[in-house]
Amino acid sequence: MEVDNYGPVVKMGSGHELRFEDDADFEESYKERAVNDLRETPERRAEALEELRRLIREEKKLYLPTDETTELYLLAFLRVCKFYPDSAFKRVKFLYKLRQKNPKYCNDLLPSLEKNVFAQNILTVLPSRDQHGRRILITECGQRWKVKNCTLTEIFRGVELVIEAAILEPRTQVSGTVLLVDFAGLTINHVWQFTPNFAKLVLDWIQYSMPARLKEVHIVNQPYIFNMVFAMFKPFMQEKLRNRMLLHGYDHSSLLAHLDAKCLPTKYGGLMDIETDQGIDLWNLLCYYEDNYKVTNEFGYKKKK
């Protein structure tokens, strides 16, 4: 990771760069998508923000500033709910109640405390968006995951940190995210790390509280025993998410039918000549925003005295 005139950047492969964007002015294609997919207009955005701020202020036990410093954060909730303030507020409450009930997974979410999972090279954010402008996160939960070195809790916390950075990108708020989960090398020892309670937590976070548009989940290189993991998640999965989950096995052509080869590494059949082994660079990039995480870590329901 290095810092240039435009901010922190991770150089990946030959000519590829990963940086988190914060510019609110984006291309015409994103503006059209915001209008057509999210019902977003300047008037509706202003009205929805005003109403969401009012609802948050009335939730007395919730600490979440409603001034201009949190406008982009609140827009993430509104965009995922297509600018319906009541739905966005419901998602806000669900998120902070989930965090309150699950401190092991959600408290003290700071990049500086989670170096280990990134050192395992389990998590990769690809430098290029897909053909629909979506951010792609790769999670390698097989060969790269040594259960003696890294816990499932650490992996989930790492994913939370990445998503929190991505949701503050206006383009990602509009176009959404894609999750690619690589289960190559999954063993029974990995399967034993999963529990129904953990599956429910993850799906509650994704489906009811995460302020991000998860557009697709691609499962690749999954062996037969993956079915044991999937069986734990399936009872808690809503139809909307089930329809967005695609299992490709070892068939790269199946994956490429959904994601453009230009945005995928060669090991998944893509054209991008990069390795998914720069976890520490990603960690350093997130650490650059440590102060922002410290601020958002203070948000939530007040502890009972």
From TrEMBL:
**Family matches, as PROSITE patterns:** CRAL_TRIO (PS50191)
Gene Ontology MF annotations: phosphatidylinositol bisphosphate binding
Q: Name one Pfam family in it.
A: CRAL_TRIO
The residues covered by the CRAL-TRIO domain are 110-276
What is one GO cellular-component annotation here? membrane
Give the CDD domains listed for this entry: SEC14 (cd00170)
Q: What is the name of this protein?
A: CRAL-TRIO domain-containing protein
Q: Which organism is it from?
A: Macrosiphum euphorbiae (potato aphid)
